[in-house]
Each structure stands twice: as C-alpha cells, then as structure tokens.
Amino acid sequence: MPSPDRLQLARMTYGAYESRDRSVLERILSEDFTFYSPLDVGIDRSSYFERCWPNAELIEAFEFKRVVETGDEVIVTYETTRTDGSRFRNTEVLTFRGDKIARAEVYFGWDVD
C-alpha cells in the first residue's frame, strides 16, 4: 500500500519551488542528500542548493503527470511552466530514507509545446 506521507512529501518538494520557500526543502532533504542529473552527477546537498535552487526564480507551476510510490522510491513525471511561459517535462526518482529524501535522480530534455 503506498504511503501518502511520502507522496505528499514528494509533492511538497515541487511546491517549494513554486512558492520559492527553500525552508521546505531544507526540512525534507536528508543531511547526506545526493543529487544526480546528466549535468550534475552525484552532487551533495550544499551543491544542490547552490546550483539548482536558483531555478526556483524561473518556475511558475508544476503539473503532475505521474506520482507513483514503489518501495523506498517515488517516481514523479511533471510538466513545468516557466515564468516566461515556456514549458518542459522531467521525470525524477526520489529515494527516501524514512521521511527524508536521500537521493534524487533527474531525467530531462523534453520541451513541451
């Protein structure tokens, strides 16, 4: 049975970008959080906030296409609207340890019309 808590926590991470409330992510990400993407392979929590958090200024909204829990992972596919009106689609695999996200893998490259 999926845990609503992890699904809600996953949704909250994207909501933090929409509201530009970094404190939400600071509470949800584990101290040893590791982030993976094609551009940032295995960066730590501090580097994540330095490199990725500034993108919050460019995000208007997320539209979830898929939010699925399987074991300790939540898989999220979303379409994002930027503040300039352009859109893109990503899929992320969030790995949880308890109620904290310990790892995120991001797969991107889709622009949406």
Describe the structure.
The protein has 113 residues and is an alpha+beta fold. The protein contains three helices and six strands. The protein has a six-stranded mixed β-sheet. The longest helix is centred in the first third of the chain and has 16 residues.
Brief summary of the model shown:
This protein has helices at residues 4-19, 22-28, 45-51, and strands at residues 29-36, 41-44, 59-70, 73-82, 87-97, 100-112. With 113 residues, it is of the alpha+beta class.
Tertiary shape: globular
Strand content: over 45%
Largest sheet: 6 strands, mixed
Q: What is the average of the pLDDT values? A: 93
CA radius of gyration is 13 Å
Low-confidence stretches: none
Question: Would you list the SSEs in sequence order as H and E?
Answer: HHEEHEEEE
The residue fraction in helices comes out at: 25-40%
Defining traits:
113 residues; alpha+beta; six-stranded mixed sheet; 3 helices
Give the SSE layout:
Blueprint: H1 4-19, H2 22-28, E1 29-36, E2 41-44, H3 45-51, E3 59-70, E4 73-82, E5 87-97, E6 100-112
Parallel strand pairs: 1-6
Antiparallel strand pairs: 1-2, 3-4, 4-5, 5-6
Helix pairs in contact: 1-2
